[in-house]
Amino acid sequence: MSDGGDIKDDGFTSSLDRLAQGFSSDELYKANSKTAEVFKNTVTDLIPKRSDVEEKYHIRDSVKIERKKNNAATVGILKKSKKAYVARFINDGWDTSWDGKRNGKKVDGLHFWEKASKEAENRMNETMTDEVKKIITKKAGGA
User: What sign has the CA pseudo-torsion 36, 42, 48, 51?
Assistant: First the structure.
């Protein structure tokens, strides 16, 4: 019952009010980037490393996480490395034919991007769940 004065509630109701405010842009990006980091590490390990070529940038070193306007975190190849097209050939494979002639052979791709996606899926889901739980716990007034 109320004595007619102000009701002070630092408990459940105020916790629900904070949760109802939703996630901030930074909170969303933090959860997305931690999840993207799992994929980035997985795909980087699957990209073949050549030791017989001196390069300024290696594809492995060019895998980066980028923040999008909707606070998504995407994993891709750094533009300045100029390795995205090479990564695509290695991943997808290519046909050695020239001038539209089908006398070449098909070089199979390694499909490291697809393998990383499959391999990291469960860990990415776990990471996202953990990050969201942390945010909710913080908003609800937990430790």
Answer: positive
DSSP three-state, residue 59: helix
pLDDT digits (tens, 9 = 90+) for 50-106: 777 777 778 888 899 999 998 889 999 988 888 888 899 999 998 887 766 666 788
Asked if 39 and 124 count as a contact pair (C-beta separation under 8 A), the reply is yes
pTM for this prediction:
0.77
Distance CA 39, CA 44 (A): 8
Residue 98 tokens, joined? 């020239």
Distances (CA, A) of 99 to 48, 90, 96: 29, 21, 10
Start-to-end Cα distance in the chain: 30
Q: Is the dihedral of CA 129, 134, 140, 143 positive or negative?
A: positive
Residue 59, Cβ neighbours under 10 Å: how many?
23
d(CA 32, CA 129): 11
d(CA 113, CA 123): 16
Could you tell me whether strands 73-77 and 63-67 are parallel, antiparallel, or unpaired per DSSP bridges? antiparallel
Predicted local distance difference test score (pLDDT) of residue 1: 41
